[in-house]
Amino acid sequence: MRHIRKNTITAYLFLLPWFIGFFGLVLGPMVSSLYLSFTEYDLLTAPEWVGLQNFIEMFQDSNFWQSVRVTLGFVLIGVPGQLFFALFIALLLNKGLKGIGLYRTVYYIPSLLGGSVAIALLWKNIFGFEGIVNDFLAILGIEGRSWVSHPDYALYTLIILAVWQFGASMVIFLAGLKQIPGELYDASAVDGAGKFSQFKSITIPMLTPVILFNLVIELIKALQVFTPAYIVSEGTGGPSGSTLFYTLLLYQKGFSYFEMGYASAMAWILVLVLATLTALIFFSSKYWVHYENGGS
């Protein structure tokens, strides 16, 4: 009994840093944020309870709905585009190329750098009036423009940046492709199946668990995108609100206008949206995700 008690105490001592981090850096701030979402708080004076006023004001705010539209457009185009491109590159790398480790590293680097301030600044210059994109268009005789400063195109430059960060998803897709038994392709080839039929009937069904994982991860990341929009628009969400992402408006409300109660309410709406979308994806997965044991 003493030995069991000693092992239990030792286990809790090893877990103590995690408990401190969880309660001090995760659960504590979450509870505080939930309370602040029902208050008017400017960081300088004591919070004043206002009930649902922040949520009512939020749903009547045109900037809020603009941020929702911008973020939704980014997610609906960027996430499928990134997953498609990641799968395409993974299929190419799965052909047994020499030096595949080097290719994996090269393609993974954008995922490591894509969220940095330096890359956002570089992207702003690339799509600026004197950027590389316009230099290339000039060769083709096409007159360029400052793509990041035009309300019709600014969002798409950030979508291209998101798609460019396909490395993490690509590596996971490649790992999934390696797990598909080659005997399935051999058997289908004997039955006369072509490459497209094999891709549709074998590759995609066998990859659905990986697709599910990548979809959830990239959806969560896309809904929280912040740095590129902040750098490209210099924190304004411009031009004309075309890059006013949800998290950027949340930042503006909390740290530019000191409406911390409003910002906390926005944060909790985002949490609820993320939880709801993730739950819906997992609920729908039983209809389209297939596992090797034949279950769905």
Description:
This protein is an all-alpha fold. It is built from 13 helices and two strands. A two-stranded antiparallel ribbon has the order 1-2. Helix 2 crosses helix 13, helix 3 crosses helix 12 and helix 5 (117-126) crosses helix 11 (227-233). It is globular. It starts with a helix and ends in an 8-residue tail after the last helix.
Q: What's the SSE blueprint?
A:
Elements: H1 2-36, E1 39-40, E2 48-49, H2 53-59, H3 62-93, H4 100-113, H5 117-126, H6 132-139, H7 154-164, H8 167-178, H9 182-190, H10 195-223, H11 227-233, H12 246-256, H13 260-288
Antiparallel strand pairs: 1-2
Helix pairs in contact: 2-13, 3-7, 3-8, 3-10, 3-12, 4-8, 5-11, 8-10, 10-13, 12-13
Order of helices and strands: HEEHHHHHHHHHHHH
Distance between the termini: 45 Å
Shape: globular
Sheet with most strands = 2 strands, antiparallel
Strands side by side in the biggest sheet: 1-2
The radius of gyration computed from the alpha-carbon positions, rounded to a whole number of angstroms, is: 24 Å
Low-pLDDT sequence parts: none
Q: What is the beta-strand fraction? A: under 5%
DSSP summary: helix tally: 13
* Number of distinct beta strands: 2
Global structural class: mainly alpha
DSSP helix fraction: over 70%
Look at the structure and give the mean pLDDT: 90
